[in-house]
Structures are given as C-alpha cells and as structure tokens.
Design goal:
Blueprint: H1 25-36, H2 41-55, H3 61-73, E1 77-82, E2 90-95, H4 97-108, H5 120-129, H6 134-150, H7 163-166, H8 172-219
Antiparallel strand pairs: 1-2
C-alpha cells in the first residue's frame, strides 16, 4: 500500500516561531472551543462533562471561569452579554484575532510525545490540532507511533525487585508475591502500549485512505 507523504513547510527565514506548546491544556481547550462558537463558562463545563474523559482532562468550574478571565486579560477573548429570559445575564466569550493566532500557533508547533504512553497531551493534540486537516492528524499519529516504537523496550516486563524494595528479611513466599505483583503491573503496561500501537497503526492507514480519497476528488 502506497504511503501518503505529509511535508511540513519551513518557517520563513528571519521569522521566529514561538512555541505554541507552552499553552496549558485548559487554555488549548478554551481557545479551541471558542474558535467554533461563542460560549459561556457553563457551556465549557458541559462540554468537559461530556467529552473531557476522551481527551483525558477535566477542570473545576472555578478553574474554567478563572482561565476565561485570563484570556480576556491577554486580549485573546472578550465577553459579551448573553441575555436570559430568567435569572441574571450570563457572559458569552468570543475569540479575538489574537486568540485565533495563538491557537493556530499551537496547532503549527512541533508535537513532542511525552514518555508516558497514555499521557493526555496526545489526545488533546489530536482532538484539537487534528481538526486543522487530515494531514495534520496523520502527522500527529505518525509522530506518536514512531516515538512509541523507539521506546518500546522501556515497557518490557520487569521481574526483579530492586534491592531497596526487597529488604533482607523477606521470606520466600513474600518475595515471590512481591515479584509476581511487579510482573502483573509490567504486564498491564505492556498490554496497554501494545493496544495503543495497534490503534495508531490502524489509524495511520485510515487517515492515509481519507487523504487519498480527498485528493482524488480534488483532482476530478
């Protein structure tokens, strides 16, 4: 099967690309949600209640409103009244041009996979930066897959207790149990990494097919 090649354009000389990855997860989520429509803090809370588990992130309501206030202070967003038929008016938050630029800067910034295989960083990246295009989603999946392949040996079975974990007074049964527990935990990690890599490989193929199909339609 032919592989779809995704090339990244280099930044023009003399232009410094700021590290958009410096944004916190909640900042990314808020900027991304506001980029599609104006929302209240309550709207963001409902979104996290429904979708937060899929991106591995949650936040308290107070955190959401505090961060929305910071976006306004940075001129990345601005509030407008949201009249209600009953109860006090709420604030709708809309993204400014500077907020959109900051979000795009994060989307375009290089993704560096964390050592922990199931870290939420990849899920957040794919969910929000991946909406930029199938090519961007494929780039992220390939980066994650390559990193996991290179670090696969780090997640092989560990069966020997470290000296400080064993102690000199363990009897045979207690030592066997501690080693067995260590094996069970190592096995869990290995299975999770293998499942993640299988999903990444299948997703790479699906994204390649989507890109080919889109390219064929454009060529007609």
């Amino acid at each position: 099967m032919a592989r779809v090649t995704v090339e990244k354009e280099a930044a023009p000389k003399g232009i410094r690309v700021e590290p958009g990855a410096s944004l916190g997860r909640l900042e990314v989520i808020l900027l991304s949600l506001l980029s599609t429509s104006a929302r209240t803090g309550y709207d963001v809370r409902k979104w996290l209640d429904r979708h937060g588990a899929y991106v591995g992130y949650s936040a308290q309501t107070s955190q959401i409103y505090r961060q929305l206030g910071k976006l306004v202070d940075r001129e990345w967003a601005f509030p407008v009244p949201d009249p209600r038929n009953s109860g006090p008016d709420a604030k709708l938050y809309q993204l400014t041009d500077e907020g959109r630029r900051k979000l795009q800067e994060w989307i375009d910034s290089p993704y560096e996979p964390p050592l922990r295989p199931l870290d939420p960083d990849f899920q957040v990246r794919l969910r929000f930066a991946g909406t930029d295009s199938p090519e961007k989603a494929l780039e992220l999946v390939r980066t994650e897959l390559q990193f996991r392949r290179e670090h696969r040996q780090d997640h092989m079975f560990t069966t020997e207790l470290a000296e400080q974990d064993s102690g000199p007074d363990l009897d045979e049964d207690e030592r066997y149990w501690r080693e067995e527990l260590l094996r069970l935990q190592s096995e869990r990690g290995l299975y999770m990494v293998n499942s993640l890599m299988a999903w990444l490989e299948a997703t790479e193929i699906r994204l390649e097919a989507i890109i080919r199909q889109r390219n064929l339609k454009r060529a007609r």
